[in-house]
Every structure is written in structure tokens, then in C-alpha cells.
Amino acid sequence: MDIEIETSRLVLRPWSEADIEQLTLGLNDLDVAKWLAFVPHPYTASHARDWVSRCREIASASAQPTAYEFAIELKSELRAIGGISLNKIDPAAGTAGGGIWIANGYQGRGYGREAFDAKIRFAFRDLGLTKLVNGYFDGNESSWAMQRKLGYRPAGEVPSRCMADGRQTIEHVTTLLRSDWQGRVG
Ligand SMILES: CC(C)(COP(=O)(O)OP(=O)(O)OC[C@H]1O[C@@H](n2cnc3c(N)ncnc32)[C@H](O)[C@@H]1OP(=O)(O)O)[C@@H](O)C(=O)NCCC(=O)NCCS
Questions:
Q1: In testing the pocket of ligand 1, which one of 8, 142, 149, 174 has its CB within 8 Å of the most ligand atoms?
Q2: pLDDT, tens digit, for every residue of 45-104?
Q3: How far is the CA of 143 from the centre of ligand 1 (A)?
Q4: Range of 90's domain?
Q5: What CATH number is given to the structural domain containing 133?
Q6: Is pTM beyond 0.90 here?
Q7: pLDDT per position as a tens digit, 99-119
Q8: Total domains, the chain
Q9: What's the CA-to-centroid distance between 142 and ligand 1, angstroms?
Q10: d(CA 28, CA 84)
Q11: 126: which residues sit within 8 A by CB, 6+ positions away?
């Protein structure tokens, strides 16, 4: 099932073949990929094509998807400027994980927070989940700043590895409870 979520400046929508160029440009950038776990480097159009078809399979696999992979489209430019996911959805436990990236050149303008906020709303209000688990690699102050402002709290650390540059690192795990979020948004 194809879901679209609109915010004031963005549309979160399924990835398509038309996004291959933007997707490749955005992720073939070590400054972005070094903060993500599973992005190879260099990131080629072939990787992007595989990703788009995998997202299609995920979307059509089940009436109750275990993941939503959204392109973040900037309305004013009608192009994808990043990606955001809600994954590892466990309806029984009420939990899900996820991730986000915004292309260089579009960071620091509030798009990350706007997209993440919309994803949280979707997870808690539309899907009825109760707890979101996220994280960030050691040193990723932008991501932690964004998550903290959205109400995420520290929830431990786990060893991790970045595929793009091969380094071993620490992932700081973060969580957001629906009850805390409701208290903030009313
Ligand atoms: C992390 C990322 C998604 C944030 O998106 P963004 O669009 O750049 O962030 P925003 O502009 O929405 O900023 C969100 C908030 O964090 C704050 N912030 C961002 N970077 C910051 C920094 N380095 N230090 C302090 N605060 C920072 C902003 O001021 C903003 O607060 P405000 O809403 O009160 O103004 C983006 O920088 C990115 O894609 N980075 C590379 C990939 C990545 O790290 N992905 C996340 C993996 S966990």
C-alpha cells in the first residue's frame, strides 16, 4: 500500500525510478554515508536501482507492512532531498525502528526535523505504535540534536559498524514513548 504524508514543505512518499539520480547523488557522499550503517561507498546508480526495487517489494509484500521507506520530496523543487524509514515494525510489541538522511546542501534548514516529526505522528497516531527506537553513531551531534528536540531519550549503547568507511563505532540507542510524545504535543 502506497502511503504519502504531507507536511508544510515536504511530501514523504514512496521511492520511484525517477529518484535514481537524486538518490545516487545524495548517498554517494561520505559526509552523509559515514553516519549510516548499511550504505556502501561508492554508492552507484545500480545500488540506487536495487534500493528502489527493494522498497517496492517491501510495500507490496503484505497488507501489514513491517517497514515504510519514504523518499523526502521538497515541494518547492519537486525532487527527493533525502530518505526516511520506519522499519522493524512489531505491531504486537507496539514498536518500530527507523532512520533518516538529508542530502548535503539541504541540511540544517529544519527538513530533517519536519520529516521526523511527521514520521513520529504517523507511527503513533496512524499505526498505533507505542514506542520508537532510534539511534545515532558516536559523534553525530546533528542527529542527536534533532532527536533530542523531538523528545527522544538516551537508551544505551551498542557496538556497530559503518559499511561506507568500514569503521567500528558505537551506536547510541534512543527511544521515544508515545506517552511522552503525547505529553509534548497535547
Ligand atoms: C541528521 C540529519 C538527518 C538532521 O537533519 P537536518 O535537516 O540537517 O536537521 P534540522 O535542520 O532539521 O535540525 C534539527 C534540529 O537540530 C539542531 N541541530 C542540527 N545540527 C546541529 C548541531 N550540529 N548542533 C546543535 N544543534 C543542531 C537544529 O538547530 C534544529 O533545531 P531547531 O529545530 O530547534 O532549529 C541530517 O543532518 C543528515 O542527514 N545528516 C547525515 C546523515 C545522518 O546523520 N543521518 C542520521 C543518522 S542517525
A1: 142
A2: 999 999 999 999 988 887 788 999 999 999 999 999 999 999 999 999 999 999 999 999
A3: 5
A4: 5-185
A5: 3.40.630.30
A6: yes
A7: 999 999 999 999 999 999 999
A8: 1
A9: 4
A10: 17
A11: none
